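Changelog note: in this version the structure field was regenerated for every chain. One regenerated record is shown below for reference.
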Amino acid sequence: MLNSIARGSVSKVTDPVGRTLLRWGLSPDLVTVIGTVGAVAASISLFGTGHLFWGTMAVTAFVFFDLFDGAMARARGFGTDFGLVLDASCDRIADGALFGALTYYSFVLKHDPWLGAACLIILVAGQVISYVKARADSVDLRIGGALAERAERNVLGLVGAGLAGLGLKIALPICLWLLAAACLVTVVQRLVQVRNAAKAKGQFGPTQPSGTPGHGPATGRQR
């Protein structure tokens, strides 16, 4: 949801930076990898050791790399299929590191199983949300925005961690449980969107032969 609202405003800032990075000889793929490695390292070394405020600052800085690679592709005038897959894969890795580190912090450092449970819900549901969207796109089912997309998950998670790092301890459980609930709602929302898109294409007739798209091969479902 935030993606569609903020895209125009953010591009006014990121596009000039993207052009500068291209002039320096960097590639969008390299920037993607640098941002992901930095986000993973910051999540593990800072969130995983209880330094919530500095972890928030560091991860937020590396999140901008995910904006710059797209700006670089636009400035170059083209992107690549590999770049799209690499970017999506690195997003999943960075998200997993962020909420995985918060899960470790909750269970091991805070000894708070309820907070850890919220992190696990976000971690799993967030991957499902992204997978459903990607799988729908792969079978040409176009679905719109959703309640808790990647931007919302990162913003709310980082805001909660940052405020907790500044001493407002209650902010982290509030933000994480709100986000966990939103993620569960979004999983259902995504599946409803996919069903509606499939229905609009006439894929819910009286019968369908086995092995047709949307039902997996006759020998079993894709894992």
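Spot check on this record: The two ends are 28 Å apart (CA to CA). The chain has a mean pLDDT of 89.
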